[in-house]
Amino acid sequence: MAEATATEETTTEETTTEETVQEQITEEQTASDFNWRQGLSNPDQIKQAERYASNADVVQATIDMRKKLGSSVNIPNEKSDDTEWITYRKNMGIPDTPEEYKYEGLTVDDKMPQEQKAGLEKWNKIFHDENISLKGAQRLMNEFRADMGAQFEGQVEADKKYSAETDANLRSIWGTDYDKNKEYANRAATDLFGEDFEFAKGIEMKDGRFLLDNPLISKVFATMGREMGEGRLGDVLSDNEVETLEESADSYRDKKRTALAEGNNKEASKWDKKEFEILKRLDANRMKGQV
Questions:
Q1: What are phi and psi of 264, to 5 degrees?
Q2: Which one, 63, 145, 250, 280, has least CB within 10 Å?
Q3: Cα–Cα distance measured from residue 137 to residue 85, given in angstroms and rounded to the nearest whole number
């Protein structure tokens, strides 16, 4: 009986002690929760404190913030030294120098035009100055090239459409004389511009259309070409002579097309000149018959 009584007393004491400790903790927490905002006078502090239910929440929030800051990348400023900048760029995937930017599908070598190289160097410097990562620069370059490609393709299609419309317009105006007048125009333009003819073909008007595709320009050059050849005109031709010359012109034209198809530009040029001489004679003969 004595042992049983002693055991019961021990158990009761332990239970009482645990309850007392728990009550004390609860009371302290309650008192702490109730009073933890007391003493704050700064409006910003009071407003911030309203976000938390207890001082334990504040401490936990501080711990969470320290963890985030510990894993974050600090952005250097004008007061930062070279070591801080090098570390930041390494963590962010930013190259040390502008020359280290490389792009997939874009090879920089001796074959690249100097203008394109200069443009690329400019953009590399901008990317580096703005701390753009290699991955970010690649994305920006891809988007830029895609947009430029789309614009170029659109311009090419627009130029083709305008050229076709111009050609149809001239055919309706010149009728059966289209081929001859077109040849006259080409010859006059070649003689006028000389070595700069290829450059002249790329001259654009305000609307972005090529100058030499303009119908008015084509008609002017056709007239010039016709007049340029009048100094070598012969007598008025008979109908039989006209027919023979027309057949020869057709034959030369076919030979020229065959040579072009075979890639023989020299041979094609020879037949082109022969055809043109005949066309000039035929056209001059027609004009003399109208005088």
A1: -95, 85
A2: 63
A3: 19
Lowest-pLDDT range of 47-56, 187-196, 224-233: 224-233
Q: Residue 46 and residue 40: Cα distance in Å, rounded?
A: 6
Give the C-alpha separation, 160 to 163, whole Å: 5
181 Cβ contact list (under 8 Å, min separation 6) = 170, 174, 218, 219, 222, 226
Q: What is the pLDDT of residues 118-150, one digit of tens each?
A: 989 999 999 998 888 999 989 988 888 888 888
- Residue pair 236/285 in contact (Cβ under 8 Å)? The answer is yes
Residue type, 217: I
And the tokens for 202? Answer: 């790329």
Residue whose tokens read 């072009």: 260
Are 282 and 242 in contact, with CB atoms under 8 Å apart?
yes
Q: What is the pLDDT of residues 158-204, one digit of tens each?
A: 878 888 888 888 888 888 888 878 877 887 887 778 788 788 777 87
Q: Which of helix, strand or coil describes residue 239? A: helix
Residue appearing with tokens 């590399």: 124
Using DSSP, state whether 109 is helix, strand or coil: coil
DSSP codes, 73-102: -PPP-TT--HHHHHHHHHHHT--SSGGG--
Question: Could you say which DSSP state residue 106 is in?
Answer: B
